[in-house]
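Provenance

Sequences were taken from public entries as deposited. Structures were produced by running a predictor on each sequence independently, with no templates supplied. The record for FMN-dependent alpha-hydroxy acid dehydrogenase from Alkalidesulfovibrio alkalitolerans DSM 16529 is shown for reference.
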Amino acid sequence: MTQAEAKKIARERMKGYCRVCPVCNGKACAGEVPGMGGVGSGAAFTANVEALARIRLNMRAIHDRKTADTTAVLLGTSYAHPIQCAPMTGVAYNMGGAMSEEEFELALAKGSSAAGTLVWTGDGADPAMFEAGLSAIKAVNGQGIAIIKPRAQDEILARMARAEEAGVVAVGVDIDGAGLVTMALKNQPVGPKSFSELKELVAATSLPFIVKGIMTPDQALLAAEAGAAAIVVSNHGGRVLDHTPGAAEVLQAVSRQVRGRLTVFADGGVRHGADVLKLLCLGADGVLVGRPMAVAAMGGGEEGVAGLFKAMQGELVQSMLLTGVGSLKQAGPDILFT
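Predicted structure for FMN-dependent alpha-hydroxy acid dehydrogenase:
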């Protein structure tokens, strides 16, 4: 199945929730939350895409590199490439419900595994959503990361224990989910976490702990001081706070603050392999892809997800070769046109 075929099927299956636009920039679905859009004016979703689009690559084709190695070491493990599947839930109220939550998460997990990378699973208003993600991770021998909403401490700790039992690679909290409209509508309280609360969560597990939703250097430093193993520079896809900058706009400053102390992931607006290279050059170690993976899963299942990973990895290789980058370690600011 081609990506075009998967998108065509997804467009029908997600009708009324996602238009599967030729350019996924958040403009047609602005304010559609629940749904696939960005909260309020949709400016934060659009900012992610536009921030990446403004970044240019320096083309250098006079060099002796004939191949490009996309191997990435993340949280101590080597993967085929630095691209991973972002955590997503709420198939029924965000995507139209043409698939069950279990089918959706399994497609993401198996497609990610087939592509030599990890799936990240999420948490939602219905407890079954978190469990569907854990079941999917179990199906791929634990090759996944479980992310939990910023609920009350005891609720998070209970879910962390369930994730550990499932054999996940790492656990974490998407603190950027503190303002999710969908959680509020379903009477599932979430909110910001204090530094002491964050430290408590980190200390409660032997697994690497990830803080997702970092958008400023000072918050990155707090995550590092709390003992986190990784952060994700992310504004939750523009779904929680209107008018934030795009993740690519803040990534370099955030990464500089904590680089060498923890692993830095980034997401938001990634559509092509060239976008992946841009984020790596700005200081990310790994990159998460959300909405395009949802479309691939809805339109092509496991095959669609694996196919999208393969296509993006191929684009990454092409971008590396044409910028003189032989391995991911060579990706730096000098590759970017300023």
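The chain has one domain: 72-322.
The mean pLDDT is 96.
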